Amino acid sequence: MKIGSLIIKVIVATLVIAISAFFTPGMSNEGGLGSLFLAAIVIGILDWAISKLTNIDASPFGRGFVGFILAAIVLYLSGIIVDGFTVTILGAIIGALIIGIVDAIIPGDKKTM
């Protein structure tokens, strides 16, 4: 993967997470753009690790119910890891749904998480 396409993926993921945090009760960003950017990186790393370890796509619509639940878990964990980005359990569930919808609308890779 070229570095340019990786940077674009992270920027798109940051935008998707910002939209989700705006519309999702239980998901908030008090840390500004930096925490959104870091959350996008953490979510990408967690998604990659889950994919490599379990061969399951952790995107909200990647593998049906299992992918949706994994996406919610990844969101929740990112809220624990990243300062200034908080996600409750309910926020992770709603956020996974909103991220799936936004992923379907935003053109590009179609796989943010």
Could you explain the architecture of this structure?
Helices cover 70% and strands 5% of the residues. The radius of gyration is 12 Å and the shape is globular. It starts with a helix and ends in an 8-residue tail after the last helix. It has 113 residues and is mainly alpha-helical. The protein is built from 4 helices and 2 strands, in the order H-E-H-H-E-H. Helix 3 (64-81) packs across helix 4 (89-105). It has one domain. The mean pLDDT is 83.
Mean pLDDT: 83
Terminus-to-terminus distance: 17 Å
Radius of gyration: 12 Å
Helical run tally: 4
Number of strands: 2
Record keyword descriptors for this entry.
single chain, mainly alpha, two-stranded antiparallel ribbon
Provide a quick synopsis of the model.
The chain is mainly α and 113 residues long.
Helices and strands in order:
Elements: H1 3-23, E1 27-29, H2 32-54, H3 64-81, E2 85-87, H4 89-105
Antiparallel strand pairs: 1-2
